[in-house]
């Protein structure tokens, strides 16, 4: 991410001056340019979104959805869980759970400001998934010290997610597929759709893979922040008309 241009104090811009597909977020009125995501970063966004989207308690998940925290602050997490209404425009407030992927080029100062903005707006958890260095997830909560979760541990978000999430699944596609299959089986059993114990085998795995645009180079785009376009049980993404990748042009519905 490029170094944000900002001056001390309040900046001149307002949220209502930004339009769907603009490559900027706002922090206290200062514009922050959001460069296109690299292949690893963009592909990871979809992996993480798929894992949380299939949790039995979750009905709303969005990628790069713009949240109007104040009239001069607009921030878009890589993945938002909850508070993703089925309507156009920026979303007021903040998601209960926000997931950010930090890769090479991430501006740490701006990332810190973004985390704090979400926590101040009511987000209960911010998970920062570190794609460089040791595989760790940094967990931020209001009025609590940041804690580090290794890839061999699990993450929890009580009240937002029904099930713990294996941290490895936020990094690794194969681990993510295992989580998704287990959650699909649990959801199916809960809904009493099937008549007997059926494992989530090859057919279900292929349905998951077909539902998600996996080509890494086609995921990244300059689509932050993105206005919301969402279906129940789907991963919603914003879309741009100039240079957007597949992952940001259309929602990837998990069937």
Structure description:
This protein has 255 residues and is α+β, with helices and mostly antiparallel strands. The chain has a domain at 15-168 and 222-234: tt1808, chain A (Alpha-Beta Complex), CATH 3.90.1570. It contains five helices and 15 strands. An eight-stranded mixed β-sheet has the order 11-10-9-8-6-3-14-15, sandwiched between helices. A hairpin with a 2-residue loop joins β4 (67-70) and β5. α1 packs parallel to α3. The longest helix is centred in the C-terminal third of the chain and has 19 residues, at 173-191. The chain is globular, with a radius of gyration of 17 Å. The two termini are 33 Å apart. Residues 1-7, 211-223 and 229-255 have low confidence and may be disordered.
- Uncertain spans: 1-7, 211-223, 229-255
Strand percentage lies at 15-25%
SSE order? EEHEEEEEEHEEEEEHHEHE
DSSP strand count: 15
Helix count from the secondary structure assignment:
5
Strand adjacency order, main sheet: 11-10-9-8-6-3-14-15
Tell me the name of the CATH class of the domain at 15-168 and 222-234: Alpha Beta
Structural class: alpha+beta
Tell me roughly what share of residues is in helical segments.
10-25%
The name of the CATH superfamily of the domain at 15-168 and 222-234 reads tt1808, chain A
Q: Give the CA-based shape.
A: globular
The Cα radius of gyration reads 17 Å
Rounded mean pLDDT is 78
Characterize the largest beta sheet: strand count, sense, and whether it forms a barrel. 8 strands, mixed
Head-to-tail CA distance between termini: 33 Å
CATH architecture verdict of the domain at 15-168 and 222-234: Alpha-Beta Complex
Query: Could you please say which CATH topology of the domain at 15-168 and 222-234 applies here?
Result: tt1808, chain A
């Amino acid at each position: 991410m490029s170094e944000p241009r900002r001056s001390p104090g309040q900046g001149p811009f307002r949220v209502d001056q930004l339009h769907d597909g603009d490559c900027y977020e706002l922090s206290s009125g200062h514009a922050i340019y959001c460069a296109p995501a690299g292949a690893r970063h963009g592909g990871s966004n979809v992996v993480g979104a798929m894992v949380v989207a299939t949790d039995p308690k979750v009905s709303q998940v969005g990628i790069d959805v713009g949240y109007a925290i104040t009239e001069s602050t607009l921030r878009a997490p890589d993945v938002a869980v909850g508070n993703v209404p089925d309507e156009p425009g920026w979303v007021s407030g903040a998601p209960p759970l926000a997931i950010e992927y930090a890769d090479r080029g991430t501006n740490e100062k701006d990332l810190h400001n973004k985390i704090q903005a979400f926590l101040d707006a009511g987000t209960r958890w911010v998970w920062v998934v570190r794609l460089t260095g040791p595989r760790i997830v940094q967990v931020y909560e209001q009025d609590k010290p940041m804690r580090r979760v290794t890839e061999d541990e699990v993450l929890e978000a009580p009240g937002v997610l029904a099930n713990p999430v294996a941290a490895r699944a936020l990094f690794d596609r194969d681990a993510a597929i295992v989580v998704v299959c287990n959650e699909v089986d649990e959801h199916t059993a809960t809904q009493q759709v099937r008549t007997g114990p059926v494992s989530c085998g090859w057919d279900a795995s292929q349905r998951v893979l077909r539902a998600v645009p996996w080509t890494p180079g086609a995921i990244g785009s300059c689509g932050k922040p993105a206005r919301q376009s969402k279906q129940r049980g789907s991963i919603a993404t914003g879309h741009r008309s100039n240079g957007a990748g597949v992952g940001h042009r259309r929602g990837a519905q998990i069937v």
